[in-house]
Structures are given as structure tokens and as C-alpha cells.
Amino acid sequence: MPHESSNERQKMPRILIVEDEAQMRRLLRHTLEVSGYEVFEAATGEEAVLQAVQCQPEMVVLDLGLPDIDGAVVLSRLREWSEAPVIVVSARHGENDKIAALDAGANDYITKPFGTGELLARLRAMQRYMRPEAKPKVCQFGDLTVDVSARMVKLRGQPVKLSATEYSLLLLFVQNAGRVLTQTHILREIWGPDSKEKTGVLRVYVRYLRNKIEANPDQPSLLLTEPGVGYRLNG
Amino acid sequence: MLVAVGASPAAEQLVRWTHRLAVALDCWWGAVYVESTAILSEAEQQQLSRVLSLARSLGAEVITMTDPDLVEALLQMALQRNVTQIVIGKSTRRFHRRLFRSDKWMERLLQQSGELDIHVVRFKEGLSGTPSPRRSIATGSTLQEYLLAVGIVFAVALIGEYVEFLVGFRAIAWIFLAAVVVMASFVGRGATLLAAGLSALAWDYLFEKPLYSFSISNPEDRILFVIYFVVAVTLGQLTAKIRAQEKAEREREERASALQWLIEELAAATSMGEMLKKAAQQTGDVFKGEVAILLPSSPGRLTVDPSGVFEIPEHEHPVTAWVFEHGQAAGKFTSIFSATPTLYVPLASSGATLGVIGLRLRQNLPLTVHQRNLLDAFSQQIASVMQRRQMQEIAEKSNILAESERLSKTLLNSISHEIRTPLAAIQIATTNMHEIGGPDLTPNQKTMVSEIHEASERLSRLVGKVLDMTRLEAGHLKPNFDLCEVRDLALLAESETRNEFRKHHLTLDVASDLPLVRMDFELMLRALTNLLSNAAFHTPAGTEVQLSAKVENGAMQLVVADHGHGIPEASLPHLFEKFYRAPDAPTGGTGLGLSLVKGFVEAHGGQVKAENQASGGAAFTIRLPV
Lengths: 235, 626
What we know:
heterodimer, A: about 20% strand, B: about 15% strand
């Protein structure tokens, strides 16, 4: 597997699992340990906050349905002192919880029941995002090449002309490649803080962007829709 | 509209006349009988009850009042019932009018009627040989009372013989007078009159000089004789009248307390059965007869409630059915089915007939007007208590139903939630085996793992559907509206159902210039995936399924069309019902998918419909307002 380079094996990334179900905890621990993580566990929100201080995890998998305190509260307490990326695990129907958690500082989400591969892929994407040296000047996404320093975008080697807004939108996605971005977040970043209601505008720009950067705009493979939440650049 | 009736055959004409007018005007009408101090004879009572039951059967409300002033009572009743027209009768004969002094009260009624319309209707007297409506001079005394009267007069005369030498013959007249007055307080009017006359004659014959002759020589005694006679008769009459009034009062009291007692008994009953039993018992006691209560068991069928005390013979069933249907009394003492030995009265409350009460009297005497009214009051009271109880029972039942539904929903919800966690564990474990442990598995193990995985996914979808259903039914479903790309929706629906379409051909036909549609993306995605799964499930492998989206008639149309066998005509109207499954459907479906689609789409203010295409196969169309 590509992420298991000799470099990473020396220092296993520490990961904290916050999950109230013992079986799920066991399963996750096993899966993650097999994949080369050092795993810590917490069964409640209070315990999670304590554990986080003790083990200083590099990543957190946080279930939103905790018995004692709200997952979002755990998240905000964690965010008081830690920038460690957090993946929230939510139940189906929990769109609002998901969005709230993402807006409160979670980096990504995953919906129960999820496949292990999916979880591992998200974790890898977050790891990449966390390493500053891993943010190259030129990024490659399938047939798409984005040269951030030169503000150059190429599809299959052909230059793509983007408007200023389209470019800043693409740049935002490139900088957060692999992560889900909520609509609110995107709107705030691109159109400013008072643009919460402009989802229509966002949809239109996403359509423009897809028409320009997707190999087949009718079957987008790069700029993916996250139902009810936002968008994610596949990378 | 109000008609004033009395105990005369002419009143029947009046009632019919008023009925015709009331029907023509389509208004409420009532028949009023004002009971004054006059005492009715038995024949008159019967006549009156004939009149009142005629009025009742013609749909009038029958009101009886007690008031010495007829005019006052009529006007008061008119005011109370919001009556605008009063009907009264007048005789064609001057003589009768004078006899009734009807000219006089008619005049007063006209004077005081104010805003009311007064109809004075002419009637013909003596059409049939029914008893003359003259004010009662019936005696109301039994043979024993007459004998007693004679006996007392004889006894007083005897005493008089002994004491005459002490007090003088004039004082004897006072003794006679005292005896007559005392007697009037316990014998009937006829006997009192007889005693008064007899004692006057006895005094004249036995005590007044000349003795043993009816001639009175002394003018002073002549006056005494006349005054004595007048005083005796008047006193006797007055006493008798007071007694009659007392009796009427007592009867009224009895009726009122009987009704009161009934109300209390019925209110105290804890169940419908007990209530009916008490009702039957009370009615039987008060009317001195046997009572049966009939209740509708199914529409159009009456069954005898076990609370009754007599069985209703087969040939009386049409009578009870008639009473129940028409809401009018029938049977004995009425004009309908009068050969029946039982009187049947409807148990009616606020316009609805709830049952029939049958009364078989022990003595074959017709019911008096008051008894008949009391019976009506009884049946009304029983009916209204029944109605209240029935409503209470319905309310309780629906409460219990709502409670049990709530409980089952809660149960379903919590169980579904509980199932999901272990299910998620199974799914994680199986994908784990596939993705991480894949190479180490034997082909057999691989097959088993993928079977487990598939089963857990199916179960997970089912639990998801059940949860969606409970949310829909609980009304918790509030769409998060946002402007969305229909293309995104179609693509995601396609990718989410990819597994199910492994053996089918799914094609997408989504115009590239579709407008954004206001919807809850997540919900519509579930609606669409449900439609797609449904198409994949119900068509044979290899079937073409097409998902198309276009704007038509100002609405976004999402169509899932297949080229399968189509939907049986008989199933079409039921497709979207919860748990409905077409008879020929393959096993394994839940019957939830399409009802969820309907619920989700309707939460968006849209519609979903299913039809068979002319070219074969089924088509499901979702229309959403753009």
C-alpha cells in the first residue's frame, strides 16, 4: 500500500477513537492497528477530552452519538488547544449534526455504516493535508494539473481558462483536496461572510467548473457532490 | 311554529293543518297542551293522548305545560322556543265558542301576541262520535263512595235525632255541613254532591218544621235551606278541586322524581351493560310493565340487549325495525302497528336513533298523556346517556389506539437504532476482510464473506427504510430545502444503486441545461434510489431501465421507466400504500419503498405516479415544482 513507506513505519501516527460501542471500538482498533496506527480509545465525551490531553493524538475519529455530551461539544473543547484533524462519524439522517460538526471544526465526516477502505482513505487524505511539505506547488488530479504558484490549470496538458471566481473556487478545493467542504464554508471563503443564502450561485459555479475541469462533465469524477453537505475534490 | 291543542277531536284537524304548513315552510313545529286546573275525564285523557301522539308521529315536538293562564303559557313557550307563529282553533259554532269562552282568550292572545303571527283555524265540531269536549263534569267517584256518602248522611241524621233537643234543629244543618266538607276531602266529587243534596233534603225532611215534609213554612228556614245547599255544594266542589290539584301535583312530583332517580341511576352505572340494565329496570318499575331494549348490532339489524326482561317475538321485528328507522313510536296505543301488544319507543338523542325500547304494560290501560311524556323523557334520557357513553368509549378506544401506535413506533425506532450498531460492526468486519485480508482468503471464504456482506447491506437498507417510515409517520420529516442540481441527484442515485443494477442496463437521460430545483437533496436522493431499486427488483435481469429528468409544464419531471412486464392493472391504485406488495412480486420486498417515495415527494409538495407505458414496462414519474 502506498502510504506504508519506510519513512512512516518508524513513527506510527497516534489516533484517538471516540466511540461508545465497545464492539465498534474493538473493530476500529483492530483495523487501524493492522493499517499501522497507534490506537487510543475513549468511550465517552468526558473521557475523550481527557484522553486527548494525555495521548496528544495526531488524528481523532469522533462518533457524534455519545452518551454523555454532544459530539460537537467535545469537538469545540478539543479545538481550544488542538489542531489535530477530526473525522466525525455520524448516523444516517444526521445531516444537520454533520454540518454542525464540520462548521465547528471537524475536518471530514463518514456515515455509518462505512467500509474500512473508506475510513482509511479519509485518514490518508487528512494526513496528507496535515503535512505542510506534502503540499506541492503542482498538484495532479487525474487528468487535471493545477500549478498553484503559476496559477496555471491544465486538462490533459491543454490549458484551461478560468474566471477569477472559478479559480479561487478550484484553489480552495485543491488546498483541501480529499476533504469535504460544507456549502457554508465554501460560500464564506469565496463570497464573503454574508453569503450564506447564495447556494444557487455556488451550484452554478460548480457547474461551470465541472464543465471546464472534468474529463466528462456529465459524469464528474473530480468535483464530487456530498449529498446535503457540500463538495469534495477527489484526490 | 306552535299549535295549541286540547282534548278534542277537532284538535287533530288543527295538528294536521299545522303539520301541512310546517312542512311547506320547512320549519320546526311543536304541539302545546296547557294543563289548567280543569280535570280531564278518562275519555278526554285518551282523546288528548291521541292528539299528542298524532302530533308526535307527524314530527312535532310535544310540550305539555301546567299553567292556569292559557294565554300566558302559550306566549311564554313561544318566546322560549323562538316561535314566530301560533296556531289556534276556533269552532264554527257560536254556542261552542261561548261554552269554551274561547272568544275571550283568543282576544287576549291577539292583544298580547306582539310580534307573533296568530293563525286562527276554523274546525268542524262533532265529525265523529267522539266524546264531546265539554269541560268535565264527570263524577270520578266509585260506587263505594256513593254508598259511603249515603251512609254518612244517614249516620249524621241519626246523631241529629239524638242531639236536636240540645242544640236546636238549625244547628243540625251545621253538623251536616261539617260532615259534607269532611267527606269532600276523601271521596270524589259526585259523592260529595250526592251527600250535599241528600243532607239538605234530610235536614228539610227530618228536622225542619213541619217535620217529615219537604215543605218549608218558615221563610227564614227557606233561606237557610237554600244557603245550606249552595254552601255544601260549593265547599264540596272546592275541596274536591283542591284534592284533584294535590293529586296532579303529587303525580307530577312522582314523575319528576322518577326521572331524577333514573338520571342518577344511569349516571352511577359503570358500564354500558349495567346502564342499560338499570334503564330497563327503572322503566319497568315506573310504568309497571316489562321492558326490552334493542340495540343495532350491525347496520340494519336490531338485537335484543340482555338487559331486557322479555323476548320479542319474531312477528314484532318489523315493528322495531320501523321504529328504529323512522325514529317514531309505534305499536300499542299508537296509530302505527297498533295491534302489537307492545309499545315501542325510539331511543333518540340529538337527532340520532340509538336503539328502541319496548314496553309491555301489565295492565291493559292506555298510558296517560303524562305517562306518555314521561316515557319520552325516559327514552331521551337513556339515549343521551348512551350517546355520551358511546362517545366516551370511542374517545377511550382512540386514545388506547394512539397510545399503542406510539408505543410500537417508539419500539420500532429504538430497535432499528439498536440493530444498526451491530449491523455496522458486521459491515465493517466484512469489508475489512475483503479489503485488508483479501489475499489470505480461500475462494470459499471469499464467497461466504461476500454473502455476509450482501446480507448485512440488505438488512441495513431495510432498517433504513423502517426508520424513514417511522420518521415520516411521526411527522418529524421536515425537508431541508436548498437549491440543488438535478444532475447531481441523478448521478448519485445511479452510483448508490450500482450494485442492484449489476444485471440490468441503467441509462441516464438528464438534460444539461436543467434549472436548479428547491429540494432536500438527501430525501430526494432516497426517493430516487428507492424508485431505481424498485425497478431493478421487479424486472428480469438484462432489462433496460432509464432514468430521465426534464422540465415539463413548469415542473421538474424525474421518470424511472423500465421495459419489464409492467404493473398489473389491479395493483396500480395500491402501489404507494404502506406494506402493499403486488401479488406476483418476487419475494424479498418490504412494500415500504414506494410508500416512502410518496412520502418524501409529497413532503416536497410534489406528486408521484405510476403507469404502464404504451410501449410496455412501467414508468414512475416524480413531479416537483420548479
